[in-house]
Structures are given as structure tokens and as C-alpha cells.
Amino acid sequence: EAQVTQNPRYLITVTGKKLTVTCSQNMNHEYMSWYRQDPGLGLRQIYYSMNVEVTDKGDVPEGYKVSRKEKRNFPLILESPSPNQTSLYFCASSSSGQGEYEQYFGPGTRLTVT
Amino acid sequence: AQSVTQLGSHVSVSEGALVLLRCNYSSSVPPYLFWYVQYPNQGLQLLLKYTTGATLVKGINGFEAEFKKSETSFHLTKPSAHMSDAAEYFCAVSDPDTGGFKTIFGAGTRLFVKA
């Protein structure tokens, strides 16, 4: 089954404790992206990757890091989480970054930073 | 910068009534336009999209949307609402001028369907 998986689905952590949210897709997609969803703000793009070893900032990259060492994986790293990073996070992938193709979303990771 | 405005954070309709969810974008260049739906505790899934060609596009579950360049709009409609349509709907655009790599989402509209 074609899918985007994220782990963990739920995470509660404390300020400053480094964490990684994993994202994997099995569709051989070139393009992957991370979003955060906050009430009243919709989804905002954090980082995206056009292909292996090629990443760029979205609209809200502060406090986040990403890497794309393999085509299927695109982990999101919070080196020193803060309470304002409490949010619902979605990973997405697309066959191309050209924009006209739909994105396939993972189930989401709900992160709480205390 | 590109922006997307969805008019109405909440819309309530009766079962069988017309559904109209509004989306306006700001762009001097016609972007690629999408509507996604999010059911509770799930990720987003594509309803429909406009890239080029026919301006009236049909999607899944009886939804359709019309791209109106003069109005910079891409409103989503469904002739007859069903209880299962209750969800949150997001309009999104990607800008061909930036290679489409960046996608901008609207704030979302939550649709309530009354029996």
C-alpha cells in the first residue's frame, strides 16, 4: 500500500530535550515536505526537499533541522524544543516538486513541549 | 508573497443543502490550486486540483471547484451535503514561478452538516 508513515504519532517532551520525528514514504517520490498545523493558521511549511541531499527552508524553519540522506526518508529534528513548537506535524511527499502534483500526507505527529 | 484566504473558519449546512466553501488567492501568475480534506485524526487527502485547461474541475465525493482568474478565486462546491462531508477543508496554492516547491495553505474551513 502506497503510504507516508510518521513516528511517533504522539510525543510529550520537555523543553530542550532533542527529538527526531521520522517520516518515510514508499512511493519513490522525489519531493518531501514538513508542515505544522496550528488552529486558525492552517498548515505552514517548515522545510522541503526536492531530492536526496537537496533541502530548503519553508516559511517557518526556525528551530528545526532536516536531512535527506535517502530518497524514502525525511526526518525532522528539533535540537532544543520549546513550548511554541507544540503543534501537529505532517510530513508529505509528491512525485515531483514542480507544484502541479498532489501531495500525499502522513497521519500526523502531535507534539507537546512542556 | 503568495497568500490564500478562506472565507469563514466554520460553515454549517443542512444535509442535502448546497455546500460552498470560498477560497481566494493572491498571485499575479495563475498558480496551481488544490483543495484538500482532513477528517478527524487523519492527514490531508486531495479532493481536486487545477493546473491548466478546463477551469471547472471535478473531484472525489461529488465536489467540484471553478478557477476564476478574474476573481482570483477557486471556490469549492457540492450540490447536496452528506453527513460524511463533515470535515475540515483546506485550499492550497503552489506558485509556478518558484518551481512550485513552496505550497501555501489557507487557514481551513470546518464544515458542519446538520441532520
Structure commentary:
- The complex is a heterodimer of chains A (114) and B (115).
- Chain A is an all-beta fold and 114 residues long.
- Helix content of chain A is 0%, strand content 50%.
- Chain A has no helices and 11 strands.
- Chain A has strands spanning 4-7, 10-13, 19-25, 31-38, 42-51, 54-57, 65-66, 76-78, 87-94, 104-105, 109-113.
- The termini of chain A are far apart.
- Helix content of chain B is 0%, strand content 55%.
- In chain B, strands 2, 4, 5, 9, 10 and 11 form a 6-stranded mixed sheet that branches.
- In chain B, a hairpin with an 8-residue loop joins strand 9 (87-94) and strand 10 (103-105).
- Chain B is globular and about 45 Å long.
- The interface between A and B is medium-sized, with 27 and 31 residues.
Features:
heterodimer; A: 114 residues; mainly beta; 7-stranded mixed β-sheet; 4-stranded antiparallel β-sheet; 11 strands; globular; B: 115 residues; 6-stranded mixed β-sheet; 5-stranded antiparallel β-sheet; 0% helix
